[in-house]
Amino acid sequence: MLLNLIHRPIPTDKKCVEAFEFQQDVAHRNGFRTTILLPVPALFDKATIEQVKSYRQDYGDEVGIYFYNLNCREFKEKFNTLEYQYWLFSQADKKKIADWAFEVFGENFGFVPSAVGSYYFDVDSLAYIKKKYPSVECALATCFEEGANVFRGTNGYWHLYSEGGPWWPWIPSKNHIHAPAMNSAQSLDVVALPHLVRDMLHSILHRDDCYASHPANLLRGKIYKDKGLAYDLNFIDQYIHQEKFNGGYSYYNMFVGPNWVASRHYYEEDVKVSRDLYVKTLNYLGKKKKEGSVQDMTMTEFGRWFKANRKLDDVDQCYWKDILYGSRRSIYWIRTNGYRATIDPMAGSAITDLRPYASQVKMPVGAGAKDLWNGSYPFVLNQYRKGGINYFGRAGVFSASILFKDKKFDLTFERTEIESLDPDNRSFSSPFTLETPEGPLVVEKTCKFSGSDITIDFKLISSPGKQPVEVTQYFTGVQGITGSGDYPEDIRGITMEASNAQGKKRLPISYTSKMITVENPTKLMANLPKLDLKLSLVPMNKCDSGKIADACLSGPMYQMALVKTIKPKERMSICLRIEKK
Amino acid sequence: MPKNRKKIMEEFRCPLCLSRECETFVKYDPKHKDYYCSTCEYTGTENDVKKMYAVITSRFKLLNKRIKTF
Question: Is residue B66 part of a domain?
C-alpha cells in the first residue's frame, strides 16, 4: 500500500506550532517522509519557513502550498473579503490568490512547488495553476463524499460539497475535477488525491469525516473507548487488503491538521488521547512499512509513480466490509473513467449510486459561476438520497424483480452477498433464494463492469416444479447533485424512447405516470440534456417486452424496464450503456 | 461552580444532537446546575451527558475487536 503522510503548520497559534513539531517528530521516528503543505499565512512566517527548510534538508520532506486558511493580515490587506474558502472565490480572484501564493513561495524557497492542496480544487483553478506553473504534478484535490451529511452535522457551517468523485487518486479531466480524464487530450496532467481515505461503507451512510484515516476524527465520532484503537488498525488493514482487488495496488493518505493534536477540537477527551491515537496510528503504519506492506512517498513521488504505473483507463475497485457496527454489511465500488458505481448487497446487489463521468459535465464553482458552491458530480441513481429502500415507494436504483406465478419479489428488498468476485474481469455474482408457497426459487445475479457499460445477467438456477419465472430488470432514474438539498430535482426535459424492429416510441417526462410498452425491444433510452447524457438499456439476449414510464410527483423518478420469462438454466442478460450525448 | 466550568461547558457537545451526528455545544445553566442545548430539547447534568455518550459508543459493536480476515 502506498502512503502519503501530509502535515500543515499553523504558525498563528503557539499550541499548533508545537503540535506540528510533534507530528513531524512522530513521522520521522517511524521513518516516514512527509509532505508539508504550507497554508498562505505560513508563507509569511519566517520561523516556519526556516523550520520547513530544515525538515526538507534533514529528512527529505516535500514542501508545497495549501490553499486553505487564507486569513492572515497580509491576505486581508490584499483581498479585503470575508470569504475564506479558496474554491468559493471568483475565478479572477482564484487566479490572483494562486499567483500571489506561488510568488511568495518562490521568494522564500527559490523554486516552484510541485505539490499543492486544497479541501477542494475546482477544475478551472487547477487547470490555471497547471498551465502557469507546469512543474505542479500532484494536488490534494477533493474530499470524497463530503457534502450533505457533513453540512447537516456541522449545523450548516462547512461549505464543502464534494460528492460523487473517485475515492482514490485519479487524473482529472479538464471538464470536472471529479471526472477522470478519458484520454490524454482531456487530461489535466495533474495527479489528484482525495483528502483522506474514508470508510467506504459509513462514508455514504453517515458523515464521513468521522470515519476516515484521521485518528482525531475518531474521537469526534466517539469511535473510541478505553484506549482501544481496533477500528483504526482494522481500517488500515482493510485498505491494505484492497490490493487484492486492484492488481496489488492500494493507496492511503493521512492529513491531520495540528489543531487536532494541539487542544480539544470537537471532542471531549483530553488532547493527550488524541496524541496517543496519532502516535499509535503512525507506529502501526511504521510497523507495516518495516514488514514491507506499506511504502511511503511524498506527494510528488506518488504523482510520478501514478503516471508511470496507472493508465487513464485503469479501474479502481473497492470491496469494503463493515468493521464497526457488526452489521455484516458490505459494499462494492467500482470507478472506471466512464462512471462510478456503488453496489449494495443489502439492496439485492442493486446499483444504488451512479455517477456518469462519461458525460463530462462542466460545473464551475465560485462567486460568479453558475453553480456557485456545489462542487459535487451529479448522480443518475441514488438510493441513499432519493427514495430509500425501506419506504413504500420507488427508489433510485438499477435493480430487478422476479415474478413467480402471482408472487412478486422485488430484489431491492432482499439481502444478498457478493460472491465469486473476480477483480480481473471486474465481475461478481450474488445468489438469491426466494421462498414461494411451492418451495424455494434460486436465482443468480451476475454483474460485470467495463469502460462505460454495466452488464447484468440473471440465471434461474432452480424453481419449484421447474416452472418459469418472469424477470424484470428496471432502472429507476433520478437526477441531482448531492448537497443541493434532499428535495427532488425537476427532471422535466428528460425524454425516454423505447425501440423495436417496428419503430420508436417517445415519452417526455411530464409527471403523468404514463407508461409505454413495446414487444421485443431492441433498446430503451433516456436522454438527460442537463447532463448531456444518454443512458440505454440494451437486451443482450432477446427480451419479451420493454417499458418506459413517466414520473409522478410523489415518485419523481422515471423508469425503464426490460422483461423476460426464463426457465431453469436460462438467462436474461442486459447492458446499461452510459454515453455522452 | 468549578473554576474551569466555563471551559468544560464549551467542550461538551449535545449528546442528543450528536446521536444524529450533529454538533452543538451545550451551555451551562447556573440556576438549575445543568446543561442545555440551544438546538434541540436536551437538558441534563454532566453525568447524564456522559451516560448518553456511552449510548452513542455502544452502537459500535466491533469497536475494540481486531479483525484478522476481510
Answer: no
Q: Assess if residue B65 is contained within a domain.
A: no
Give Cα separations from A470 to A62, A261, A310, A525, A563 (angstroms).
60, 59, 43, 22, 7
| A201: phi then psi, degrees, rounded to nearest 5 | -95, -55
Domains of chain A with CATH codes:
2-315 (3.20.20.510), 338-580 (2.70.98.10)
Residue B69 lies in a domain: no
Helix (H) or strand (E) holding A2: strand A2-7
Residues present in chain B in total: 70
pLDDT, residue B4, reads 47
Partner-chain residue, chosen from B18, B21, B59, that has the shortest CB–CB distance to A325: B59
Is the minimum CB–CB distance between A233 and chain B shorter than 8 Å? Answer: yes
pLDDT, residue A71, reads: 82
Residue A173, min C-alpha distance to chain B (Å): 34
Q: Which of B11, B13, B62 shows the shortest C-beta gap to A325?
A: B62
Q: What is the pLDDT of residues A545-556, one digit of tens each?
A: 999 999 998 888
Q: What is the pLDDT along chain B (70 residues), one digit of tens a residue?
A: 444 444 544 579 999 999 999 999 999 999 999 999 999 999 999 999 999 999 999 999 999 899 999 9
Describe the crossing of helices A91-109 and A123-132 by its angle, rounded to 10 degrees.
40
The C-alpha angle A336, A340, A344, rounded to 5 degrees, equals 125
Contact across the interface for B63 and A223, Cβ inside 8 Å? yes
- Strands in B34-36's sheet, in edge-to-edge order, are B27-29, B34-36, B43-44
Which residues on adjacent β-strands are paired with residue A475?
Answer: A398, A560
pLDDT at residue number B5: 46
**Taking Cα atoms as reference points, which of A413, A417, A350, A345 lies closest to residue A382?**
A350
CA distance B38 to chain A (A): 12
Number of domains in chain B: 1
| Residue B64 belongs to some domain of the structure | no
pLDDT for position A57: 98
Residue A298 phi, psi (nearest 5): -80, 170
A contacts of B57 (beta carbons < 8 Å): 222-225
- Distance CA(A65)–CA(A510), nearest Å, equals 49
Low-confidence ranges of chain A (pLDDT < 70): 385-393, 482-485
User: Which position has the grid cell 487518486?
Assistant: A169
Q: Nine-digit cell at A251? A: 493507496
Whole domain around residue B33: which residue ranges?
Answer: 5-59
Question: Which three three-digit cell numbers place residue A452?
Answer: 462505460
Say if the Cβ atoms of A241 and B70 lie within 8 Å. Answer: yes
Alpha helices in A43-200 (DSSP H): 46-59, 73-79, 91-109, 123-132, 148-153
Closest-CA residue of B relative to A263 is B11
C-alpha pair distances (Å), B7 with each of A161, B28, B29: 32, 10, 14
Residues of B whose CB is below 8 A from A153:
21-23
Q: Exposure string (b/e) for A72-83, b if CB count within 10 Å is 16 or more?
A: beebeeebeeee
Which residues of chain A does B67 touch, with a Cβ-Cβ cutoff of 8 Å?
Answer: 230, 234, 237-238, 323
